[in-house]
Amino acid sequence: RAMADTAPHRVSTEPCCKRIRVEFNGETVADTTGAIYLYEPPIPPVYYVPLEDIRAEFLHRSEHSTHCPFKGDAVYWDVVVGDKRAENAVWSYPEPISAVPELAGYGAFYWKKMDRWFEEDEQIFVHPRDPHVRVDVLPSSRTVEVSLDGETLAKTNRAQFLFETGLPTRHYIPREDVTAALTPSNRRTACPYKGEASYYHVDVGGVRYEDLVWSYESPVREAAPIRGLLCFFNEKVDIAVDGKTEARPETKFAK
Fold it and tell me: Is the backbone of residue 93 left (phi > 0), alpha (psi -120 to 50) or beta?
């Protein structure tokens, strides 16, 4: 769903067929099979949940309000469960503009203000999985060699190639085929399409490159083949596939 910088601002919705649940302070505050996706590129998709499927006893109307030229005027609620409060965590457009009338009667949550999210019975992370994003993991016998500053860090013909919509191909390599000196990092990140990742520093020629490698020890089901494998940032190392060095991609991870 990539768009040119000059593309007009666009808002659209579509139905979500999954059961969506939201947890806060040990309680399920929303449980619905009637959610819709709201798309507003380049922002990730947002779940809008029927207000009737959000437990009213946990909602406390706040005085906060905002205006969006593409959706209308929003009202807000705090979510309060026991001794825990998430301020202005839910919003709704009681009278949305004519371009998105379907938002009436729906509310949305700030993702990070809630504790846990589920699609059916599987926990999800970061933001809703965009049904227009695809992740394919394919085994490959092509030779993948990773190097940096003239030093080979890994070489394998047993990589798993991960193809994810809008991102460069990632090469996941068995640990025994990585020769780089790795030091575990404290960094952790999460991806809605792959799960939770841990990171490693790499020492090359007396220089430490921080968080250069990552691994998914318990990936989500669709990404199971990359479990425990190691992946280098294409943006920061040199990767040759069957002897042909690939250009370093320009992404937000290049910095």
Answer: beta
Based on the number of CB atoms within 10 Å of its own CB, is 28 exposed (0-12), middle (13-18) or buried (19 or more)? Answer: middle
How far is CA 35 from each of CA 14, 108, 168, 249, rounded to the nearest angstrom? 9, 10, 31, 36
So what's the pLDDT on residue 7?
62
Beta-bridge partner residues of 81: 84
Cis peptide before 41 (omega within 30 of 0): no
pTM over 0.70: yes
Q: Which residues of the chain have pLDDT under 50?
A: 1-5
Quote the pLDDT of residue 253: 82
Alpha helices in the chain (DSSP H): none
Rounded to the nearest 5 percent, the helix, strand and coil shares of the chain are: 10, 55, 35
The residue among 32, 188, 22 whose CA lies nearest residue 112 is: 22
**CA 255/CA 251 separation, integer angstroms:** 8
CB 88 within 8 A of CB 78: yes
Neighbours of 234 (CB within 10 A): 21
CB-based contact 53:32 (threshold 8 Å) = yes
Please say whether the dihedral angle defined by the alpha carbons of residues 171, 172, 176 and 182, taken in this order, is positive or negative: positive
Give CA–CA dist 113/87, Å, rounded. 8
What pLDDT does 82 receive?
A: 97
